[in-house]
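Forum: Protein Structure Q&A
Topic: Joint prediction for protein chains with partners

I've read a bunch of threads here and the consensus seems to be that you should model interacting components together rather than docking separate models afterwards. I'd like to see that in practice. Below is the full input, 667 residues plus whatever partners are listed. Could one of the regulars post the assembled result?
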Amino acid sequence: MGQFGQAVANGILGGAVYALMAAGLTLIFGVLDIINIAQGIMVVLAAYLSYALSVHLHLDPLLGLLITVPIMFVLGVIIQWAFIRRLRGRERTAMSLLVCYAIAVIIEGALYAQFGSTPVGIQTSYFNTTVHVFGFYLGYIYLIGFGLAVVAIAAIYLMLYRTKFGRSIRATTQDAVAARLIGINVDRVAAITFGIGVAVTAAGGMVFGATNTFNPDSGYDLISRLLSIVILGGLGSIGGALVAAMFMVTAEEIVNIWQPTWATVVYYAVLVIVLLVRPTGLFGKQEARAQ
Amino acid sequence: MKELSAGAITAGRAWQIAGRTWRPAGSLVLLAAAALFPLVFTNPAVTNYGVYALIFVAAASAWNIFSGYSGYISLGHAVFFGSGAYFVGIATKDWHYTGSEVFALLPLAGLLGAILAVPFGLVALRVRRHTFVVITIAVFFIFQLMAYNLSVTGGTSGLLAPTINYAPTTYNNPFYYAAFGIAACTIALSWLIRRSRFGLQIRAIRDDEDRARGLGVRAEQIKLSAFVISAVPVAMIGGVWWYYTTLVDPSSGFDPLFDVAVALMAFLGGLGTVAGPVLGALIIEPAELYFQQQVSSGYIFLILYGALFLVVILILPRGIIPTVAELITKFIARRKNSPGPAGQLPPAGARASETDVSADGSRGASAQASTTGERA
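Posted by a regular:
Agreed with the consensus. Here's the joint model:
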């Protein structure tokens, strides 16, 4: 039972970090109607940035976020502005997938060139300490990650529902053409949303890099998890991503107690079973039309 | 498109008539050239390019039969490729096949691909386009993980092919002709499907699934059939690939780059056309091999590959074949001194095959025209 409770606690804390990364993915999907399959490698890129800052500049990874978040934001805006914006027509969805994949491959190659394939991890003195709460041993870094994720997701929610810009984003999500007609600068909304969606990987990547060892290849594993989470939660639903991430990571941690080799399969098995029952995911809206 | 001038119609017609005579002749010439290729270029280094190119011609054409025609982009066809490779590998080992006998296992590999595609398709095709892509990726990772962890697959070290005592100078030829046979059959199948009622139904689903349903297309059945059909050649060519490269391991058999490579090939040539994926594979695969040999470090190759990818998608978003076909049609139309849009609209009642390439050129309008034409 103790082991089980520990697994649930780890699942919820770890799930929050995945929720943050998935929130970026689902936000981008909601506004731009594209799936950014480069999100996984961007998390790895952000992790490497944090790693490089802490190794070369001896910067605390938490302080380093002040640098990495803007970098990832600008990267996202540039990608949307330079590539995604140009895609038009019937095959737009498919082509945006390929464009994102191409970007992912380029980033992967660049990371290999710069850092090699030896797995590394972000290390700081206080990251490895544990805190004893309610009978559970919780890693300090997991708590930091949980806190960061909660703050970031709350900030995204406030931005979406309490600001004028958030209203433009929601309007664009509902109907991009109508939003354009009432004077919303849809291109600007799209660029900034893409930037925000990518910027959350800075925080996610820092925590990921501190809790796992990683190399440029880690992006594939990450993106397949993130995609499972956003589909399970329902594409475009941030709340859904939150619930799905908690659920998936907890399920994985629990299976991990008995069957470490097959723990990852649980992800996909859960996804397939849920979609058999509910093709739109847990919180997804029914699509009005087939396109 | 309201008023089609007479000149435009004749131009369109001329293009069709030219196509009717030149296309079969051209195809035969290309077929003969491909069949004679290893007899003319006997250097194994050259035929090596031929084998890999044909492997991807078959894979990209098969992928296009489902994804190109239906518009549902699958990034999980490596499941069939890897399963075919593993099946042939395991069967060869267990049944003690040697030499050319191994090629006899290929139809069984195709059958396995079809059998796998049914549950895969039933799960993945319940959802709409965006989610479909992701499900195919998820299923792909399930298979890769199984290859790592099951005992029959040999885990991380993979499965090694037995050594073959073919003469070194003509060593590649059996593989070349096996790949050639599968590729030729796949292209023929793709062409037959495209001009059939079934092909029209798939493409109607691509254009507007709800409307197609309303018109009586049994979308679920059609999509699943196309998915299963497209899995067969991919599984077979996976078997050839294993025997040729002599090794399959989880990361090479179930390779995410494979999924994206076939998609890129189809996009470069022209998604949903018969010739497009063939052309795309013939351009990209040899280029990739060449780069790999020239650039020693894998990461530079990755960067180059990604950059090429971006350039292709941004410069030629519709692919070579539709773009060139439209240019030719426009050119003919201009020579006939007819201003206005080039006449891609086929005469009522025209067979779908005649609108072939140009139908894709003029988004939607003529595709629908061809649908009604078939029904009339």
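The two ends of chain B are 21 Å apart (CA to CA).
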